[in-house]
Amino acid sequence: MAAGVACGLKTSGGLDLAIVQNVGPLQHAASVFTSNRCKANPVLWSEQVMADGIVSAIVLNSGGANCYTGSRGFQTTHATAESVAERLEISAGDVLVCSTGLIGEQLDLDKLTAGVWDATRAITMDGGAGEAAGLDAATAIMTTDTKPKQAKHRSADGWTIGGMAKGAGMLAPGLATMLVVITTDAVLEPAELDQALRSATRVTFDRLDSDGCMSTNDTVSLLASGASGATPDLPDFIAALTEVCRDLTLQLQADAEGAAHDVAIEVVGASSEDDAVEVARAVSRSNLFKAAVFGNDPNWGRVLAAVGTTGAAFDPYGIDVAMNGVQVCTAGEPDQPRELVDLAPRAVHVLIDLHAGEAGATIWTNDLTHDYVHENSAYAS
Amino acid sequence: MAAGVACGLKTSGGLDLAIVQNVGPLQHAASVFTSNRCKANPVLWSEQVMADGIVSAIVLNSGGANCYTGSRGFQTTHATAESVAERLEISAGDVLVCSTGLIGEQLDLDKLTAGVWDATRAITMDGGAGEAAGLDAATAIMTTDTKPKQAKHRSADGWTIGGMAKGAGMLAPGLATMLVVITTDAVLEPAELDQALRSATRVTFDRLDSDGCMSTNDTVSLLASGASGATPDLPDFIAALTEVCRDLTLQLQADAEGAAHDVAIEVVGASSEDDAVEVARAVSRSNLFKAAVFGNDPNWGRVLAAVGTTGAAFDPYGIDVAMNGVQVCTAGEPDQPRELVDLAPRAVHVLIDLHAGEAGATIWTNDLTHDYVHENSAYAS
User: What's residue A175's pLDDT?
Assistant: First the structure.
């Protein structure tokens, strides 16, 4: 069950508070949280809630991150959970809280409480199971996102997975990412959900690095109701969950603040997956490379300059680089003329072959644009 | 002795080749090179030249980095050194070569050779000892720099230090930085020069992180002629050399590509100097923080989100942050209103007190601006 309402936290007056309730019969859950050491109050609260693997509901708000707001901010989070619990007749200790928005400002508890009242009424009185209710919830968690992000998977065995996500800036998760809620009606134990969620996020959200900035509020939660009565094979479930997470990840990338290109940095021939991730992430964090992509300039020297800052195993004169299918560098020397590379399409593929092993990984990033600078300099967010 | 000439490597027709000759009596030298593992051909050559601590001359060109250009590129570097050696009647094995410009393009050896001819004639026929000659050399090594950068120090004991630098983008040295040539007439052994240079660069060029991108060509060289006949106390010399390096560092920061603010990130109360550097560098690499500074937005939440990505010792609720003298965050909670912070001046000072010890460090960086994106997207460099 889901609902999204407007309670006045966003100055725009848009939807800004969402509740997702798991009506069972099971209330199993798993979450991954930001690895940022400056954790927001809702993350500190939710880590406690997750300790027993039981979650009845999640309340999420945009319009303020409730981070670096001290004990008063923690009390606001606690009171929000209590309010949800009272209205839905559940335990506050089973209510996750997620917040997103400006860091270092107190949230207005009166507005939050009014929003909880409206959202819980929408769930209990109007029913919160339809597509419209899910879309309202996905819309209410948006900040600088321009569109809601949802994904679903329906298995042949009778169970389903659905998910929603927000995130457009401060988009470089370290362990979890952004705000994501995924639900399933499969029958799974909390430990299985935890294994599945960590397996899926490791190769999806954790491989998104839009702007190199890790949030203080990142939370990905997976709720299982068991309502289908179907118990999936765990590998099948992990594969489906990974696909849902990948779908949401690519939607986040496509809507990243100010982006003009969606860039996939694929590293192959690495001696380990860790090496491949390190190399791809270094390239994804090169402002010079990202600005060149914005200018449709296939400046592969900036790719290799970034590769050279890593500790990965490679021989500088053993590296190949291709951009959108054109092999511009072979064994560390110029190959095809860079003028042959067409970077006009939004999708850009950079393929780096380290010739040092059999492992590989892809990091998804965006270019560095005037709109990114404008959006992050003209408005506080 | 110095000279700067135009040999056609820059499409603008500007000065693009410089030679600095040490006419002795000593020809002692030390260099620090980029720690980027993708080293340019002139760096690979110059590392060999530096092995014996003896350098007679340095030839530097803009208009091309000669990096990722393979064996043909190395031959170009070698031939350039041979050409200088022949003209100045010195050994090629005592000629450092530095190049800067686009990565992944071959340099035109004919143009380089003609430039060497002109520059060596300027030194041997016209004399290359005046201020005009030094300014020509400092101008010839510029790329996207808008002005030449020079600094000098004259000791009471009769010895002097002079230096020139270039660097405006790919400006985040890992060990050395950019192209810098420093000369002194002090009497010092190569080992003393090496110790002094590493001591000075560690707290000056290595603390500059304008755009997080480490170059493949960074080289800082120090040449000592002994012409003054004065042997300095080494600590005095290191202090003076550090001051010259700091002066050049701040000139590089002030001329960084597209920058609208010069930002000093000062971390105090750290448990170690390494911790202080790690925290300050993390903030200096946050695009969100840098864009906020461009927008004159004192978004201290973005500062703390970056601090939280580090492994430094601190308690998230023990941190203070001040921006341009206004304490916006005390013990991890909002203090003075952010509206009181005036970020209109070009100089911005961010003071972070970790309350975890007695150590400190400052990283110098710049904001992220439309001009930075424009300069690095509209032109290949």
Answer: 44
